[in-house]
């Protein structure tokens, strides 16, 4: 009997969402799995938005990506920000962060596999230092580390820096969100050089308008990155 199997026999692992006993570690119970809106069919190749149909057409674009400048190449999201998808994101902030990050790392690794190359550097979206100070944990960094552990890709947690607080994006329309984020993220003055020549996979917990990814992707290009792709745990289906 392997060590982990022996441990599980004594302490059965919990569902990372509801705490019910499950068979494998860092997963969901059957009920939570069924209620989580995983994106499995067609999705926008650039932002991961779920789209009608099941055809994995590599050239599929949503209306937003056809009309908004997206300074990155491809994007994927694990689930829609609704129901259990929303609950898991909130628990990543306020609940059992380590367990949810580890489960999420596996899901993102599967969903974003086509975006990862031998040259990929995983870069989490940075928090402004004041928000980090208050919240103590950057959930994007937790996801980035979990994804790096899962894939073996390198991770640079401080290649980018948020140079000013941008307040809440809530209540802003799309133009307001982009205007608020513009120039808010720069390459780190001492460690940003690591981005030069690398393929970058930006990681965030939630993608709404894409304004944050746009600011971060632009900063990566400014630092000489090659291909820039984005991945989020949850995709908000409409600007809300
Ligand atoms: Zn559950
Ligand atoms: Zn899109």
Can you walk me through this structure?
- The protein has a five-stranded parallel β-sheet, with helices on both faces. The protein has a two-stranded antiparallel ribbon with strand order 4-5.
- The N and C termini lie far apart (50 Å).
- The relative contact order is 0.16.
- It has nine helices and seven strands; from the N terminus they run H-H-H-E-H-H-E-H-H-E-E-H-E-E-H-E.
- The protein has two domains: 1-35, no CATH class; 40-235, Rossmann fold, CATH 3.40.50.
- The longest helix has 15 residues, at 97-111.
- The chain is of the alpha/beta class.
- Helix content is 35%, strand content 15%.
- Helix 4 (84-94) crosses helix 5.
Bound molecules: zinc ion
Which class of the largest domain in CATH terms? Answer: Alpha Beta
Number of helices: 9
> What fraction, in percent, of the residue positions are helical?
25-40%
CATH architecture of the largest domain: 3-Layer(aba) Sandwich
* Low-confidence segments: none
Number of strands: 7
Strand order of the largest sheet: 1-7-6-2-3
Q: The CATH topology of the largest domain is what?
A: Rossmann fold
| CA radius of gyration | 18 Å
Structural class: alpha/beta
Fraction in beta strands: 15-25%
Number of domains: 2
Terminal-residue CA separation: 50 Å
Largest sheet properties: 5 strands, parallel
The ordered H/E elements are: HHHEHHEHHEEHEEHE
- The pLDDT mean sits at 89
Shape: globular
